[in-house]
């Protein structure tokens, strides 16, 4: 039996589907997060150079990956919204921004916690750190731009353009350690060279990454449902206001 997935492009059909999916993603995310944190903090071996302080990577690295990945996904939804004038795509882009900003802030915070024992400073104007900070400002700018425009359609288009232009910063973040001489260490996991980490460390990091990914899906689906309800209530309010104005003018 084939499923007509295209029908879920309509907010009315997507709303109940999202409600059914949220608990499953949330439960699996919490379970995997518990497993990943246990493996990272209690099972993974101590690093011979950095000692126990390196364990922050089991939160820091997945958070940094998600901060960049979510921005790209947000930009894709924004582009689809502009290209197809799809309301659901704009709503998805709007729903992703706060979660992306949260992971970016978490990456910066854990990076500072890691940098203090490693570099002797909470913050340095390193290329990777500076471009990641810029990413946080981009998320904040998109959210502030949207809230500053009353008209929903204009807010959707303006924030979509902002997101698409800002996506150029993502490869800068990723390749910054290769393009510039920075304090930030290079990638421990690479498609070209494989992993430089112990298998237990790598497994714990990958589990945390999947947990963060599933958490993001659950939270974004919950937020997009709120956005749908808010826009529907505003639409009803506008219609009622228009009816009242027409009745007043008729008198």
Describe, in short, the structure shown:
By secondary structure, this protein is mostly helical. The chain has helices at residues 11-43, 57-84, 87-119, 127-148, 152-166, 169-179, 199-250, and strands at residues 189-190, 194-195.
Helix content: over 70%
| Poorly predicted sequence stretches spanning 5 or more consecutive residues | 236-248
Number of strands: 2
User: What's the oligomerization state?
Assistant: single chain
Given helix and strand content, the structural type is mainly alpha
Sheet of most strands:
2 strands, antiparallel
How far is it from the N-terminal to the C-terminal residue, by CA?
57 Å
Count of helical stretches: 7
* Number of separate domains: 1
Average pLDDT across residues? 83
The Rg value, from CA coordinates, equals 21 Å
Q: Give the amount of beta strand, in percent.
A: under 5%
Bulk shape: globular
SSE string, helices as H and strands as E: HHHHHHEEH
Widest sheet: strand ordering? 1-2
Structure explained in plain terms:
The chain has helices spanning 11-43, 57-84, 87-119, 127-148, 152-166, 169-179, 199-250, and strands spanning 189-190, 194-195. The chain is globular, with a radius of gyration of 21 Å. It has one domain (17-250). By secondary structure, it is mainly α.
SSE blueprint:
Elements (H helix, E strand, L loop, with lengths): L10 H33 L13 H28 L2 H33 L7 H22 L3 H15 L2 H11 L9 E2 L3 E2 L3 H52 L1
Antiparallel strand pairs: 1-2
Helix pairs in contact: 1-7, 2-3, 2-5, 2-7, 3-4, 3-5, 3-7, 4-5, 4-6
């Amino acid at each position: 039996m084939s499923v007509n997935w295209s029908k879920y492009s309509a907010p009315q059909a997507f709303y109940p589907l999202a409600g059914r999916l949220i608990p499953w993603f949330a439960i699996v995310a919490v379970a995997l997060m518990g497993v990943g944190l246990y493996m990272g903090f209690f099972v993974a071996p101590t690093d011979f150079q950095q000692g126990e302080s390196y364990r922050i990577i089991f939160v820091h690295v997945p958070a940094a990956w998600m901060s960049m990945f979510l921005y790209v996904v947000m930009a894709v939804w924004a582009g689809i919204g502009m290209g197809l004038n799809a309301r659901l795509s704009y709503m998805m882009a709007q729903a992703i921004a706060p979660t992306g900003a949260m992971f970016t802030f978490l990456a910066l915070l854990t990076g500072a916690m890691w940098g203090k024992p490693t570099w002797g400073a909470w913050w340095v104007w390193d290329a990777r750190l500076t471009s990641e900070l810029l990413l946080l400002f981009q998320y904040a700018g998109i959210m502030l731009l949207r809230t500053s425009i009353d008209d929903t359609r204009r807010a959707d288009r303006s924030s979509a353009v902002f997101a698409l232009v800002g996506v150029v910063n993502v490869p800068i973040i990723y390749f910054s350690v290769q393009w510039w001489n920075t304090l930030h260490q290079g990638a421990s996991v690479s498609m070209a060279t494989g992993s430089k980490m112990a298998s237990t460390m790598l497994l714990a990091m990958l589990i945390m990454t999947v947990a963060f990914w599933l958490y993001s899906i659950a939270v974004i689906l919950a937020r997009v449902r709120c956005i749908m309800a808010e826009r529907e209530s505003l639409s009803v309010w506008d219609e009622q206001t228009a009816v009242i104005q027409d009745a007043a003018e008729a008198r």
